[in-house]
Specification:
By secondary structure, this protein is mostly helical. The protein has helices at residues 2-8, 16-21, 25-30, 38-59, 64-74, 77-87, 97-101, 108-126, 128-143, 154-165, 204-219, and strands at 169-177, 184-191, 194-201. The chain contains eleven helices and three strands, in the order ααααααααααβββα.
Length: 221
């Protein structure tokens, strides 16, 4: 991983976090290990949101809703997948035999999760200032180039609509299939307790976005 650390311009002090950050649950299960990357992914997700929120607040004089949209565009699954590809993180991912045969190390959802886990590892090892610099070095060039867009934030668009109409909005996971390392989630979105959309995807976040997109199509927004 030395070449990766050079790309990120960091000098790790404790490799254990980075080892865990690249261990998929399928690999952990096959090799009877203790930890996969999911806890680090959870932490990294929060760190990413804080760093980008802080950057937007300090550098752009825009409303809260606009900051939310921009942040969502650059920390969404499509964006994280792009960052992972550019860093060639697939080279370092450890997946189980079955997942390897299924192309797991190249799946969008896994690569996106790995990026979050890596940010979580940097935060734990080197602290907030270091991970903030890494995140900003990677993401700010995209923010500053308006020609590059990753995502239409359907959830935010739907949220704005229901707030304007003073209607309630709820997302529910109604289906979860497949093994732990290769799940498919089905999510529905209700507006005033009426189902308006359904989404099916490899992650809850993506399924929610698909459900919101489906609802917006039905509402003809």
């Amino acid at each position: 991983m030395k070449d990766l650390f050079e790309k990120l311009n960091i000098n790790p002090t404790d490799n254990k976090y980075y080892i865990i950050a690249f261990q998929h649950s399928s690999y952990v299960n096959e090799n009877h290990l203790k930890s996969d990357y999911e806890r680090l992914e959870f932490l990294g997700d929060a760190v990413l949101e804080l760093v980008i929120s802080d950057y937007l607040f300090r550098n752009l004089e825009i409303k809260e809703g606009d900051m939310t949209k921009i942040r969502a565009s650059y920390v969404c699954e499509n964006a994280l997948y792009e960052y992972s590809k550019n860093l060639e993180l697939s080279k370092y991912i450890k997946v189980g035999h079955g997942e390897e045969l299924g192309g797991g190390r190249y799946k969008k959802v896994i690569l996106a999760d790995i990026f979050e886990a890596l940010m979580g590892a940097i935060y734990l090892d080197l602290g907030f200032a270091s991970v903030k610099k890494v995140i900003l070095d990677i993401i700010v060039p995209y923010i500053e180039n308006p020609k590059i867009t990753f995502f239409s934030d359907y959830k935010s668009a739907l949220q704005e609509y229901v707030q304007t109409e003073q209607r309630s909005l709820i997302y529910e996971v109604v289906g979860e299939e497949g093994p732990a390392h290769n799940k498919t989630f089905t999510v529905i979105v209700k507006v005033d307790d009426i189902v308006y959309g359904k989404g099916i995807a490899p992650s809850k976040k993506e399924a929610e976005q698909e459900a919101a997109k489906n609802a917006l199509e039905k509402l003809a927004i």
